[in-house]
Write a structure and sequence with these properties.
Chain lengths: ~550, ~270
């Protein structure tokens, strides 16, 4: 929380504390703001520890239902929602003039992580509140005034994007939007599938508003208000994990809707913004799941005795737990660094609607929006893969008991599985990130990190990170050399991980400088892990050449 | 219809987390070793008050606590969770009060507040476990009381009527009473909701009205040590240990034998 960028974030977000005196809950200075953030997270922790976390197993067992075209939450999910409303944990990032708490994304990410640790399925429902950011950014003032206070008061949201034939490829969306001249509104017709929390109060819908088009340029974004009716839930999916999160198939029958922003920018601008926010949310959810995996594995290993002692004493066991912790600390650091970058550029973007940015601010905006864009796919992809690996290892620590359904570790293992799939698979995160590999941006970020001061006792870590960056550079050249897109794409995942692991190594090294007692152990373990992974990927790319592409094609 | 609700709350040492240094060598409670907390059943009472407020828009909740200046923490905590006002009754002459003097003091404070429909408090405090203050406050104010309440089922200000479910041995009973009334709430009632973010941010530096003995027009002989006939001889930490089991039949002889045995060991009588 006391990261050097935080002061700037608060300054921008609070517009020099202009709200103080106007709203009784506004902060008066930087210290007051940080104190407020701490207090908010304490409340999130309280709600999680006493309600959400306690309800998680019951929610998992009951799941949501569907009756007469409406979705019904699990009963304990309703209790969770009520608790969050009473605690005031809604509309976190929205300005106070709409009833929001005006906290930075960094704080929202932390709350998100806390909720996910308790119940990742509930995080889905709760965190969809951040769809409102997209409505705030692109909707008009009338829409802001109409919808934002409702979300701040606890109404739920959903983003209705995917369809049976439009999953990862959203350009193929066919849900039809037609303008109703008589009623002076848009009408939506068609089907959406795999819509998380699909029976929400306020929907953002991607629909084809330009007849005859086939690609993303004919798509626009609409707001559907459940109060108007016209959308029914046809079925609820039966899933491997996140049982409490209702995944709906929706049927739109002449549903009245409002256009959000300009026509034709639906996919190319608004949904991209929406997805970036959602990806950060999944990075936080994945971090929460890693935390849960660590706690479960550690508690069991301390308690369980075999061969006359607690199994935590066996290297084979503590190796797994230390690795879970190291990935957690590194992944978390990546999550918060990304959140800070997002905060700065989003706050500047918002300010730019009130006044012209100074040239310095414009440069700052460009710098941080690029960093946010480059870091978001790393934070989402890596944390979601870590969540899968760590929840797998948490079961392994439990041995046979972990396979039995009465232990929590099996639920978090199932819940984690989706994180590397939704909001863009890890493969798509790689697609989003690869240009920053090939254009050398990650390498320049790494070079900046290398320039930061390191205490003498950590010099060796800094040197190892330099060597890792050099391996990344070499492997990148190797992958680019033939000028063959398929070959580069085949290498992409390796290069992506090499970049991410090296960046995370730096972030953890910086954290350790500030708080060696908290991160010292994780730094040692993570460096061993990351260095060996980078070497592995390096060897793999080195062994590849174009002529092998045929061996990979299973067609 | 809007209600005027009063909630009595007490700051108590957290006796649920007793460590080895909980008692001083002199046999008194070592307050320094025990964190001060909101008496748990008073939180249950606050939740009942908040539910009444939710269901009856325009209602106000005034919290009253008696104690040291730092007891204002429980008022702030109540405000964080949804109460509107807090009054701290704190004055040196009020110190050392037993339940009789405490209930007198609280009743005087309530009289000064004046306008109320319902007074809620926890069944008992975890530091004394007497369950006497609520009922004594009712007596002193000449009000009806419902004790061991688990849920207020309905309240009708116009008809001056309240219906509540209360805990009794082996079950529950539903009772009806007139308004105004004193309701003491059992630990088995709904837990209190958490703090609310905006309320915490807005009230974290809030100060409260403090009333001393003179402000509540208290008779000096009925407050503090002077008004407390109870004398604590000693406080001991007693650890009960299970010995052997004994199975008794339901025969008169066995029951009589048990009673005699318990009386001889001073467990009862």
């Amino acid at each position: 929380m006391d990261h050097p960028l935080m002061r700037r974030i608060v300054e921008l977000k609070e517009r020099n504390f202009a709200d103080y005196g106007q709203y009784d809950y506004a902060c008066k200075d930087y210290e007051d703001a940080l104190d407020n953030y701490d207090k908010l997270l304490e409340i999130a922790g309280d709600v999680n520890a006493n309600i959400i976390g306690v309800n998680a197993e019951a929610v998992d067992a009951e799941g949501p239902g569907c009756k007469d075209g409406r979705m019904i939450y699990a009963s304990k999910t309703v209790e969770n929602m009520d608790a969050c409303i009473k605690a005031g944990l809604n509309g976190l990032t929205m300005p106070r003039r709409y009833g929001g708490l005006n906290v930075p994304m960094t704080v929202y990410s932390a709350a998100n992580e806390i909720v996910s640790e308790g119940d990742a399925s509930f995080q889905n429902i709760w965190s969809l509140q951040d769809c409102i950011v997209t409505l705030y950014e692109f909707g008009d003032e009338e829409q802001r005034k109409k919808y934002i206070p409702r979300v701040c008061a606890g109404e739920t949201m959903s983003m209705d994007l995917t369809e049976p034939d439009a999953g990862s490829d959203l350009q193929s969306v066919t849900l039809k939007a037609t303008f109703d001249e008589k009623e002076n509104c848009w009408r939506l017709n068609g089907v959406k599938r795999f819509i998380t929390n699909g029976d929400s109060d306020i929907h953002l819908v991607l629909a084809r508003s330009v007849e005859g088009t086939k690609d993303g340029r004919g798509l626009s974004m609409f707001i559907y208000d459940k109060r108007n009716g016209g959308v029914n839930v046809r079925r609820i999916e039966n899933k491997l994990g996140i049982h409490g999160s209702p995944t709906c198939e929706l049927v739109y029958k002449n549903a009245k809707a409002e256009l959000c922003g300009s026509e034709k920018l639906g996919l190319i601008k608004y949904v991209m913004a929406l997805m970036n926010g959602a990806r950060l949310g999944i990075a936080a959810q994945s971090t929460g799941l890693q935390q849960a995996a660590y706690e479960e594995a550690l508690a069991y290993a301390k308690d369980r005795k075999q061969f006359g002692k607690e199994i935590i004493n066996f290297p084979a066991v503590y190796d797994m737990i230390a690795t879970i912790k190291a990935k957690l600390d590194a992944g978390r650091s990546m999550l918060y660094m990304t959140s800070r970058y997002v905060d700065i550029y989003k706050a500047l973007d918002d300010i730019s609607k009130e006044r012209k940015l100074t040239p310095e601010e414009r440069d700052e905006y460009k710098k941080y929006s690029k960093l946010a864009d480059a870091f978001t796919p790393l934070a989402k992809g890596m944390n979601s893969e870590f969540a899968n690996q760590s929840t797998y290892d948490a079961i392994q620590v439990h041995g046979g008991s972990g396979f039995m359904l009465e232990y929590k570790c099996q639920r978090i293992y199932r819940d984690a599985r989706i994180t590397s799939i939704y909001e863009g698979t890890t493969q798509l995160q790689t697609v989003a990130a690869i240009r920053y590999v090939t254009n050398g941006f990650y390498q320049s970020v790494l070079a900046d990190f290398e320039a930061e001061a390191v205490a003498p006792e950590y010099k060796s870590y800094a040197e190892r990170l330099v060597a890792m960056r050099e391996k990344l550079a070499e492997a990148t050249e190797k992958a680019k050399a033939p000028g063959n897109q398929d070959f580069l794409d085949l290498c992409a995942r390796k290069l992506y991980e090499m970049s991410a692991l090296t960046i995370m190594g730096h972030l953890l090294l910086q954290d350790t400088q500030k708080a060696p007692e908290m991160f010292g152990k994780s730094l040692k373990v993570f460096m061993n892990y990351a260095e060996s992974e980078v070497a592995k990927h390096f060897n793999y790319v080195n062994a590849l050449d174009e002529s092998q592409l045929d061996a990979y094609r299973q067609i | 219809m809007s209600l005027k609700i009063i909630v009595l709350a007490k700051q108590v040492p957290d006796t649920r987390n007793v460590g080895p240094d909980a008692m001083t060598p002199e046999g008194t409670v070592n307050r320094a070793a025990l964190p001060a907390v909101f008496n748990p059943e008073d939180l249950n009472a606050l939740e009942q008050a908040l539910r009444l407020k939710d269901a009856n828009p325009g209602s106000t909740i005034t919290m009253i606590t008696m104690g040291l200046p730092k007891a204002a923490d429980v008022l702030r905590e109540g405000i964080y969770r949804g109460a509107d006002e807090g009054i701290l009754v704190s004055d040196r002459p009020l110190g050392g009060a037993d339940t009789l003097a405490t209930s007198y003091t609280l009743a005087q404070a309530i009289k000064k507040v004046g306008d109320y429909d319902i007074i809620l408090c926890g069944r008992q405090a975890i530091d004394g476990d007497t369950a006497q203050v609520g009922p004594q406050v009712a007596e002193k104010l000449g009000l009806t009381q419902i004790t061991y309440t688990e849920e207020i089922l309905s309240i009708d200000k116009a008809a001056k009527k309240i219906v509540a479910r209360r805990h009794i041995d082996g079950g529950v009973e539903t009772v009806e009473g007139p308004l105004p009334i004193v309701v003491t709430v059992n630990g088995s009632a709904a837990p209190c909701r958490t703090r609310n973010v905006k309320r915490v941010w807005a009230n974290k530096n809030r100060e409260f009205t403090t009333w001393g003995a003179a402000d509540i027009d208290a008779d000096p002989m009925q407050i503090g040590k002077a008004g407390s006939p109870t004398n604590v001889k000693a406080v001991k930490s007693i650890v009960f240990k299970a010995k052997e089991n004994k199975t008794l039949s339901a025969s008169d002889a066995d029951i009589e034998g048990l009673i005699v045995e318990l009386m001889e060991s001073n467990t009862i009588g």
